[in-house]
Amino acid sequence: MCAAPALTDVLRVRGGATTRKELLDLGLRNELDTALSAGQAVALTGARVALPGLPDDKSAALAIGGVVSGLSAARVWGWSLKHEPTKIEVTVPRNSSRKARPGVVVRRRDLPSDAVGPGAITSRARTVADCARQLPFDEALCIADSALRDGLVTGLTRRDLIAEAEALPRTGRQRALDVIAVADQRAANAFESVTRAIVLPIAGLSVTPQGDLGFSDAGAEQYGDLVDARLQLLIECESWAYHSGEEPFRRDIRRYTDLVARGWTVLRFVWEDVMQRPEYVRRQVERVVTRLSTTARLR
């Protein structure tokens, strides 16, 4: 007769939690009582049992019989976000009687089994699709860009995201597909993703994340945050942490002087302007694109 599996092993395989009934069905009644008494497991509401020390997102989801979803799931996956969620988002079955708790937003949807990953969290592809149909465009693009960047390691592809979005209910499906269509793993972070979201609608502009700027006078290959090669326009997302200090300052001055001398127009934006003054950023880029496009037509 096979020995009963260790209770903690069962919980780990189930992503950190399972129902009390499943543990009893596996013949782990004594082990369960002992683990609860010793603090090696904790009882949640809804007759569920979990390992101690689960992240707040997962504990909140498991406590009401749901899964971490949306922006909260994107945070758990470790993706670059425009801002951190202020509440935990949990999806429960449509007919569930569970109610939201303080700090928790409950969404009622029936998720297919392949939309839920291990550990009470929506799968990577489903997380992107949900965020793309629910969030403002710039926030959703941050997540889609980051997911594709992460996909270079995890294997997640644009095709996976499109398939997941096409399986969504009609409401919000096209919105999700529109975000995924322009997502790009070359975007380095949320700062660049939000900047790109701001400038994407500008007529006559076509930017490439981490675009090729050619070779410097010293022979070094150069890249820029957002590059329109046709207009020779570089849009840089400048962070103080990366550019502070005497040597970075000198390096930047020489780099931008070299680019301007070779015919490039350089626009530099700080975090506060991109995140808090998007209309200012769009207006400034539009002015430059209009000027450069006019110049290009006159050549």
From TrEMBL:
- Which InterPro entries does the record match to this protein? DUF559 (IPR007569), Restrct_endonuc-II-like (IPR011335)
Gene3D superfamilies, alphabetized: VSR Endonuclease
Domain DUF559: from-to ranges: 225-288
Name under which the protein is recorded:
DUF559 domain-containing protein
Q: Which species?
A: Nocardioides albus
